């Protein structure tokens, strides 16, 4: 098992330790707040592991709350997919799934409270006017002409907003804070806007929707969240988070802490870009095994333990960084090297005939499922006169470095006999189509009796027993380490990110489970794809046996 036992330490856990020691909190409450406008990706997994991991380690609780204030972009399919992914990652949320929209009634009342306190107003300025008055980072903003509308008038206007009396874009409810603040988010930010949109949870009840900054802090407070963890782009917005909570009548005061987003090389982790890949059919859906989504990784053959381990290894800091793909792969490889059962599959079949083997004989050879773990048992692998080997495991001539089958030389067939290549048959183009061999019948499970040394071992599948299988080999989805930094990230898609082989696999793989990754000896870790049917097996390569990327980066 690759998962390390030790608890992670990071600056957020240090803050929590301090809060507990000082008696500020007795029970830690966190939340994971996805917006249901796309599938979860590996960056979200970092946030999930952080929020749920803290709740677990401190005997607290973590809620799953959909941040659903943007009905036009959201969808119930995303709501369902996100729940599935969080569960698959191994976490259980506290109580029912929550939605920010559960609190729309309360949010409305808090907005009215702000208006009553003279801290919010309805603004009819045009977008252009508002932009002009907003100022810039260097220049202070200016007050809107609607800023001094009376409380009673604002109350009436806000009610009219709610009752659908204004058009989309005609007006906004804004907080009255400070147009000269050095934090742009404090220059009278919008709290509510008009949207005549059907909502996946509240239907057509509302035609005004609260903005993220207003909604998030209040939802946190209602749920009794103690530590509200988000990514660094919300650092400035913490002022607004605190401003809202300190100006409404609510008891608990959660605190927001920010950490850096996960960036992963050779992929993109922005939902907007991922949606583009899906909608423009650059990939085959959200769960395409090349996607950095949780669903894609799962389909590819990643285990939830390997993703949790990855999230543990990358840690949580405030530093922006770019994590190497090989780090994610290493977590899977380490786990599967220990846990995956072995099988044989030939990706590029070359026929091999053992001439001195009796034509009708079939031997069921007992093969261990794991070379180092007897507890994983054995399986029976049929051996016969005609087998397939990997085309590039045979050469007519080769130097000593080539430890596979060479004409006139010997090699061991994995878990079977030593064979010698005697001659080849070629087609008209000169391609080798069959290798004719002899075998040494006294070499099953032992070395040749006369002391001949046979170094190489190759894998094979019996021709009459093997089962055809489509084998999908994946590479990085993008050709450059940071596609998001390119002018057009779609231009850098790696056209060879999916290579399909028509291979032959040993018959035991017909009953392989989808969720159980297997090591195909000498070729990598694979899992059965959901496209598999009884008469057509499909396997995905999750990861190779070795880290070939590190080498590619240098070359
Ligand atoms: P995007 O910017 O791609 O649209 P998002 O941050 O808007 O993503 P949300 O659904 O709002 O996506 O994210 C839910 C939670 O996951 C948030 O707390 C967010 O900070 C966190 N999160 C999103 N992306 C990452 C990432 N790359 N690394 C770590 N945490 C992330
Ligand atoms: Mg967001």
UniProtKB/TrEMBL annotation:
It comes from the Bacteria. One of its GO terms (cellular component) is cytosol. It catalyses: tRNA(Gln) + L-glutamine + ATP = L-glutaminyl-tRNA(Gln) + AMP + diphosphate. ATP binds at residues 35-37, 41-47, 231, 261-262, 269-271. Its main location: cytoplasm. Keywords: Aminoacyl-tRNA synthetase, ATP-binding, Cytoplasm, Ligase, Nucleotide-binding, Protein biosynthesis. Its EC number is 6.1.1.18. HAMAP family: Gln_tRNA_synth (MF_00126). NCBIfam families: glnS, PRK14703.1. This is Glutamine--tRNA ligase. It comes from Paraglaciecola psychrophila 170. The lineage of its organism: Bacteria, Pseudomonadati, Pseudomonadota, Gammaproteobacteria, Alteromonadales.
